[in-house]
Design brief:
Layout: E1 3-8, H1 23-40, E2 44-47, H2 59-69, E3 74-81, H3 87-100, E4 105-110, H4 134-149, E5 183-186, H5 190-198, E6 202-205, E7 208-210, H6 217-235, E8 243-247, E9 249-251, H7 255-261, E10 270-273, E11 279-282, E12 286-288, H8 290-298, H9 301-305, E13 308-312, H10 319-332
Parallel strand pairs: 1-2, 1-13, 2-3, 3-4, 4-5, 5-6, 6-8, 8-13, 9-12
Antiparallel strand pairs: 7-11, 10-11
Helix pairs in contact: 1-2, 1-10, 2-3, 3-4, 5-6
Length: about 350
Amino acid sequence: MKKIGFLSFGHWTPSPQSQTRSAGDTLLQSIELAVAAEELGADGAYFRVHHFARQLASPFPLLAAVGARTRRIEIGTAVIDMRYENPLYMVEDAGAADLISKGRLQLGISRGSPEQVIDGWRYFGYRPEEGTTDADMGRRHAEVFLDMLRGEGFARPNPRPMFPNPPGLLRLEPHSEGLRERIWWGAGSNATAIWAAKLGMNLQSSTLKDDETGEPFHVQQAAQIRAYKQAWKEAGHTRTPRVSVSRSIFALVDDRDRAYFGHGGKDEDTVGFIDDKTRAIFGRSYAAEPDALVKQLAGDEAVAEADTLLLTVPNQLGVDYNAHVIEAILKHVAPALGWR
């Protein structure tokens, strides 16, 4: 395990039990948690994107703000639903955020998951082409996004521009060199992991995937990662790809941890349907004393296959507690997993 970061879904609710009672609370605390995580030595600060929900939505203002407040930590998403995105405008936003962070952006994108409203992307002005699905549309948006990130000119310049143009066709600006190689695809199936490898994207695999074999979650996820790596090799890419997995992991080191997570919970995989057709398997959570955690995670085949581990954090418990959660893993568990 080379890198460990956190992943926040950015939940907020106007409840007295929540430390994030508004969208403003969540955004500002997300920045503060990224700063704290960097000070603790963590490698990444990642954020989930959901629309029509009391969660983080528009990622680029947040990513830019985190980039301006930090110096070393990777800044990313896991994931942006490409069904909702204008890929050309997204190239400009991503380029700006990456330049502000001086090349630390690690942008996770995907075809998306079931949302809060029916066909929410339609409200954003997008519809699949005749004979295609919304998933096809998301992948098509991703392909355009990747193509535009190459920074090649494609637009014919006005012969009488307001400002002087460089020679030739014009590209989108600002362009951030190298960002194309720091795009990740959030794959829910083996097939989409292989598709991502062929296009030269890094791989993000979360805490759920299509239940394709009936085996335990971590076994299926490890097989997905191996299929991805093989497809990458066969595609002939020259660089080494990166792979991340997400896990809910809590080291029980004090009374707060035991009060929140020490009473048992989701310590078994679960199976359900994320839509009418898709049977999915959801990975277990981990909560135990550090020595027990090390033994449990040593048996997680997907964690062993990945180079990056993203710790999902309970952001509504506030910055201080979540910094403690991250610190406990980095101090008591991560070294035994090969980190640093």
